[in-house]
Amino acid sequence: MRIFITGASGYVGGVVAEHLVGAGHEVVALARSDQARERVEGLGAKAVPGSLRDLDVLRGAAAAAEAVVHTAVDYADPDMGEIERDTLAALLDGLHDGGAFVYTSTGLVYPDRQGATVDEDHPVTPETSPQPYKVLGERQVLAAGHVAGTVIRAALVYGRGGSGLLQGLIGAGRQNGMVPYIGDGANEWSSVHVDDLAALYVAALEHREPGAVVNAASAERTPIRRIAEAVAGLTGAQAVSLTLEQAVAAMGPAVDALTRSSPMDASRARRLFGWAPERPGLIEELTTGSYAQS
């Protein structure tokens, strides 16, 4: 299958591209710089020069593909909502009737469930999500009736020494000698190894279920305090409890996400696609795996 992917020079997209190439697919990847081109070509993909703002490039690359995988995102860009909307419009416009489209969403679309497990049938709205444009992106993909759209809502992604959140905590531990968590840190998070997540993308493309929305998470639920303690052990720092007010003052309003607890039920992905996460768990990766070795 000829697959066009965005974000292949990044963390999740790079591993997804690697798995797709390994499964025998022809992968074409968007590359916005020479460095990105070298990265995606090193994975075995063919590079298409351009960025998410190059809508004609996106439309043409999608038109030449049998499937599209959209993983590119920049959560720090204040214009990302507008960029996401226009990017999806171009990709969906280009992709032919019956083509497959896999959209990368996040468990953060769910409202805070205060520890109650959430499945894909739980209502999500832009008003209750820390990532509202992901809710809107899901709707945009699923409303495109001419393509076989699938939405993957990923939990906290880890493995191969990556993840923005984990790298931020590791950096804080090394620089400041402390790794923060909020309150008692008992709020539990779901997580998924990046290689297990990539395997789900391959399965979703090879065994299409048009209109499917699936959670991607292992069965493990990890308290934020346990994550902070593992990172502290890795960096020789101390895990330190902060009040919410202290955390906001130190890290900004985005810290609100660290107080959430919406563990994810991923049984639908297992049922529809035969997906079976098998990589080491989050704490094992932090203490003896890729993070300890990096």
UniProtKB/TrEMBL annotation:
Domain NAD-dependent epimerase/dehydratase, first and last residues per copy: 3-216
Any single Gene Ontology cellular-component annotation: cytoplasm
Xref: InterPro entries: Epimerase_deHydtase, NAD(P)-bd_dom_sf, NAD(P)-dependent_oxidoreduct
A single MF term (Gene Ontology): aldehyde dehydrogenase (NAD+) activity
Domain of life: Bacteria
Protein name, entry field: NAD-dependent epimerase/dehydratase family protein
Provenance organism: Microbispora catharanthi
